């Protein structure tokens, strides 16, 4: 056991040279793992005690200069946990009582009985070792209590944040869903009134157009909520395949601009860039960045989509020259339900739930990439999606991978 291997240092103090020689011999002969130091005066002993943490101190009571009782009171001040055994002369009962009242661990009568001495010393050493252990355990316990305290604080903070997010969620969702529903209700009432008046064709046509718009808006909101909940519960799966990002963007942009009747110009179309992605999800990210660029810039201004290749990465940027975002807001725009306060939608649909960029970031991160943004109020924004390139291990020639940034495709949409 550790205790047995432990070398207990003890100090014996006595002005009697014979005893100072005999007692260490007794200890050496009868006790294991005890290291004895000796000194012949209380003053010298005090110096040693200041420097060393003894497991026990044995001292004669009667010594010239400072006596054992005074030494005991100094030991209590410097080393309150160190047990002190005092040696008193036979018949000095008064001194023995004084020693015990003064806090001595025990007293030993002269002439010293070896067995009694060894037993008392053994007990003193064990007491000291136990008290050391108690201190260590108290320290370990208080450290543990502190770390538990920190954990509770952290969890409480997380719960408070989660609760606040839930409240925010309920407020935003109920508010956002109410407006398309109110529209739908208004439209159906209007259609019924028009039908009663006999103006069926016009009423039904206009009503259906408006209803379709409200339904699409509700669909987008519900899809954003569904995506967010999939991400929160880690049920979000990617269906990845190698594909050419240039071609994906070309098709996506041409579809998007055709459906929204926007002008699309292709200014450069270079070599393919292979990526290993979920086409649907990355398309969702690009559409989200495009619709934000449209929402937050005025009609007639250009939106530029650029594809660059840089070493092992691909950079897909969507740049607008719209309202821009203040610097202090940039760290927050990828958070759930975050919408920059005071920024008005410039074109098209009103602002959404503040989930689009959160979902986009999660999708890109799941692909091993990240999203960056540069923006300045009044000057516009540039969102960059950085994705790892797909490197076909059977075709790779290391010299092909150039760290230089190379622009592969540029499109401009005027909206
Ligand atoms: P939202 O549905 O509100 O557009 P997003 O998560 O897509 O939610 O965007 C979060 C917020 O970031 C927006 O409400 C808007 O304030 C700001 N934002 C996003 N894109 C742009 C942009 N291109 N220009 C200026 N502000 C933007």
Level-1 CATH class name of the largest domain = Alpha Beta
Q: State the shape.
A: elongated
- What portion of the residues fall into strands of 2 or more residues? 15-25%
Just name the CATH architecture of the largest domain.
Answer: 2-Layer Sandwich
Work out the helix count: 10
Characterize the largest beta sheet: strand count, sense, and whether it forms a barrel.
Answer: 6 strands, antiparallel
Which fold name corresponds to the CATH topology of the largest domain?
Heat Shock Protein 90
Query: How many domains, as an integer?
Result: 3
CATH superfamily of the largest domain: Histidine kinase-like ATPase, C-terminal domain
Work out the radius of gyration. 42 Å
What compounds sit in this structure?
A: adenosine-5'-diphosphate
This entry's quaternary arrangement is single chain
The helix-and-strand class reads: alpha/beta
* Helix proportion: 40-55%
User: What distance lies between the first and last C-alpha atoms, to the nearest angstrom?
Assistant: 82 Å
Going across the major beta sheet, what is the strand order? 7-13-9-10-12-11
